[in-house]
């Protein structure tokens, strides 16, 4: 990925935002490994996904768990291909 421009379309209803909304549609993700269903071998986590929640750690936990599972998915793919 060398360039990707994403337009900002507005704000949510909260006074202060702490996460981005929008991104890869959740129905396009295999959540067992956080792998793209459209492009196998592409792993996704964090704010690249179309997911957000109220503040209080929920977004952090989603990013940490997604990152962990995506990392395990990458290891699985590399193990199979080597």
Give your account of this protein's structure.
- The protein has 82 residues and is mainly α.
- The chain has a domain at 26-81.
- It is 29% helix and 5% strand.
- Strands 1-2 form a two-stranded antiparallel sheet.
- The mean pLDDT is 85.
**Order of H and E elements:** EEH
On the 0-100 scale, what is the average pLDDT?
85
- Number of beta-strand segments: 2
Q: Largest sheet, if any? A: 2 strands, antiparallel
Shape: globular
Report helical residue fraction: 25-40%
Euclidean distance between termini CA atoms: 24 Å
Spatial arrangement of strands, main beta sheet: 1-2
Which regions have little confidence, pLDDT < 50, spanning 5+ residues? none
Radius of gyration: 14 Å
- Structural class comes to mainly alpha
> How many DSSP H or I helices?
1
Beta-strand content: under 5%
Task: Lay out the secondary structure.
Blueprint (H helix, E strand, L loop, with lengths): L28 E2 L4 E2 L21 H24 L1
Antiparallel strand pairs: 1-2
């Amino acid at each position: 990925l060398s360039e990707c421009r994403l337009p900002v379309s507005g704000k949510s209803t909260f006074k202060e935002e702490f996460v981005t909304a929008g991104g890869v549609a959740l129905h396009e993700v295999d959540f067992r490994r956080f792998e793209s269903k459209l492009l196998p071998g592409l792993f996704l986590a964090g704010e690249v996904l179309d997911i957000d929640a109220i503040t209080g750690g929920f977004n952090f936990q989603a990013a940490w768990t997604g990152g962990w599972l995506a990392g395990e998915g990458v290891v699985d793919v590399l193990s199979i291909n080597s």
